[in-house]
Amino acid sequence: MTPLLQVKNVTKKYGGLIANNDISFDVAENDILSVIGPNGAGKSTLFKMISSFVPTTSGEVLFKGSRISNLKPHTVARMGVVRTFQETTIFKNMTVRESIVVAQHLRAKATLAGYFWGTKTAQDDVADFGENADQLLDFLGMYDLRHEQASSLPQGHLRALGIAIGLATDPEVLLLDEPFAGMNHDETMHMVSLVRSVRDKKGVTILLVEHDMAAVMTISDRIVVLNFGEKIAEGTPHEIQNDKTVIEAYLGSEDDEIGM
Amino acid sequence: MMNLSKTQLLGSLSLLVTVFFIVPWLIEVSGRWDFYFTLTSVALLATASAGVWLTFYIGRINIGQGAFALIGAYTSAIMVVKGGWSFWLSLPAAGIFAAIVAVLIGLPILRLRGVYFAMVTLVLTQVVTLTALALPITNGAKGISSIPLPAGVSIAGIVLIPDFSTLENTKLAFYYTACAIMVLTFAVLYRLVHSRLGHLCRSMQQNEELASSIGVNIAYIRLLVFAISSFFGGIGGAMFGAITQSVYPSSFQVVDSVNFMLNCFLGGLGYVFGPMLGTLVLYFGWDLMFELGQYQLLTYSILLIVLIRFLPNGLLSITWAGRKNS
Amino acid sequence: MEQILANGLYLGSQYAMIALGLTLIFALMNVLNFAHGQMYVIGGFVTYYVYGQLGLPFVLALVASCVTLAVIGALIEKFLFAPVIKKSAREESTMLLAAGTAFLLDALIQLVFGEKQRGVPKIVGGVFNWDFRIIMPYDRILICVLAILSIVGFIAYMQYSKTGRALRALAQDRMAAQLMGVNVDRYSMIGFALGAMLAGLVGGLLVTITGVNLGMGGPTSIKAFMMVMIGGAGVISGAIAGGIILGFLEAIGLAVLSQYGDITYLMIFVSLMIFLAIRPQGLMGKPWG
What we know:
The structure holds three protein chains of three kinds.
Chain A: E1 5-14, E2 17-27, E3 32-36, H1 43-50, E4 58-63, E5 66-67, H2 73-79, E6 81-83, H3 96-102, H4 112-117, H5 120-139, H6 155-167, E7 173-177, H7 185-202, E8 205-209, H8 213-219, E9 222-227, E10 230-235, H9 237-241, H10 244-252, H11 256-259
Parallel strand pairs in A: 3-8, 3-9, 6-7, 7-8
Antiparallel strand pairs in A: 1-2, 1-4, 4-5, 9-10
Helix pairs in contact in A: 3-5
Chain B: H1 6-30, H2 34-57, H3 65-81, H4 87-109, H5 114-134, E1 144-145, E2 153-155, E3 158-161, H6 170-194, H7 196-206, H8 208-213, H9 218-244, E4 246-247, H10 254-267, H11 274-288, H12 296-310, H13 316-319
Antiparallel strand pairs in B: 1-4, 2-3
Helix pairs in contact in B: 1-6, 2-6, 2-9, 2-10, 2-11, 3-4, 3-5, 3-9, 4-9, 6-7, 6-9, 10-11
Chain C: H1 2-29, H2 36-53, H3 58-87, H4 91-113, E1 127-130, E2 134-137, H5 138-160, H6 162-172, H7 174-179, H8 184-206, H9 217-231, H10 236-257, H11 264-278
Antiparallel strand pairs in C: 1-2
Helix pairs in contact in C: 1-5, 1-6, 1-8, 1-9, 1-10, 2-3, 2-4, 2-8, 2-9, 3-4, 3-8, 5-6, 6-8, 9-10, 10-11
């Protein structure tokens, strides 16, 4: 069976600087795959290329066999691959519910003109979005917060909101950008179970970039390790924990927990 | 089709009644006929400012509306004078032509943000003026004058719009027309803002990247909104040309573009009717200051500076606690 | 051909100086000085009065222009821009304030200096004539040389003086500069004053050749914006490049396109649009937005 997402020989150069060098790996459907590595390893650049926010210098990313790299970001989202951002990236002046309602853009059946004239399809859409938003918020445990201003939420909830926005698009693949950053142990564990239930109950394949080793080892089916722009290891958490090159890469650089 | 709440219905009705009945009555009673021209100008300038307001709504600062007003004015004038078309056909055509130009210019520049975008639009106004001076079809510096009054429109013998040259009170007719255009424009604006389209625009205004990641084709929507904005500028300009019966390269200049933006800002960028209020205040203010003669510009600029210095968020921000949009 | 090059160099050097002033202000405060053209005009009028009317030495007149504009710039920054920037998060506010100051200066120019076109007697007579391949009046050459010297002086000042270094730090990263102990408020004021002064200096130089009148303010501001768009905002090299390029384009346009009417600037603008489509940040600009 073809893997859902395939990263093939992806390279990114900025002038003379090589951010990512010939990275390849596959993501199987319904898996949770984490990309880890010391600071500056090229993780976020890789993420941006997979979601097509940054063009590749060479190589491509395939989703269900079709290329998704080097397209317009919204096109990739439409194909079902959606990324989230770090916590400050929300719609500042909307309430939680409004953010989720607008995020359902990809489920819209009416045209733009339809929304303007208020056709039946448009009205049905808006009603549907509202219902779906409520359901999603409930699923993520944020129903009570739905009328709060997004900008006034505490950090943990902001992160969940970011995931909710991504989830509202009904994606097949969700790219999570450091979902556990800056959280204490309890918050992290809560987020871990949240991410897991997103995969389990919504059938979403998850690709994440993260520094928190404990969380990564707990949640991942597979792990890809980057260092200095190269892929140095790939495997199950158990394999990675015992991989010599990985241990060296981490011991040789700053401790991640402190480095952040 | 569209459900209007009670307050919305009441508000629109009172606006319509004021504009179409109360104001003309007041003018008749007070004998200040010159106010017709003032208010007609306000209505049309508010229309153009509404376009600028709309551009703000997608997160861009538009100081180029004067260019589109001029384009609209010339398009209509040329069609009527040289092509013999009816004014009423040339009006939407002027808007559409302005929108087309907006799309062509928007394609490269809409990705610019903030000050960079503003700079380009500012230069645009100047360039359109220069083009008007240079092209033969626009008659260069002489402009197009002696534009005939709008002809009538009748279908199957029924007169829909009377021929303006047969009317004894053309001022009133122009006033009604301008107000009708203004009301329609703001109705469109209001509907846009309160529909899902407005929600999409707000998402772009607040975070373009995030909007992109949820599948919003931001380039397309920006272009669409910019085209609509410029359409309003075009018809405002065309109507102006019909009233003054002339169009010159100097009819709309950089200072007008700046004023349109000012109108929006003064009225409050968060409120759909902000441009209407802002235009009213600024235009009347400028007109009243005419008494000051050579000190007019000085007083105007000082007031403007004082206003921004002490109320950097516009007029309506102090009076209105509620919000018209999120 | 050589004539076009000479004309281009002459225009370019003047324009570069205007662009430098504008770009300095922009780099420091992210403010587009709409009043830049008006400052240029004021510089011209001051030189007209000091040199043309009072008969004092030309250099003294230039100094007077510089000082006047520096003071105006400092006042505008300290009492208008600084408080507004602090109070309002919106970019529109500073832009409208800039527009307001442009109107204000226009009004003041009208009241103080009047509406007539003014000129001054030539500072140096005669025409340089090289084989009829380049014909340039000596005063233009002198002004061109003075402009180039000023630009070099400005760059040296920015590079080597304490003030210059502080300004550059401020332009690069306001927060970092503050953390390093740079008095952000004071240097913002100095920078604005310096930018205004440059505009005034060019005005003083050019009044000897093209004269000055009240209506030149707006169009000069627009030209300054175009230079900054070409070369890239906020970068010294960009400003110079933009100024020189515009100067050359104008020289070429006047020579080649004049038969088609006044379409030089239209062509320049269209080319600029196409250029910006490919490279929105200008030649050397920082990424936009």
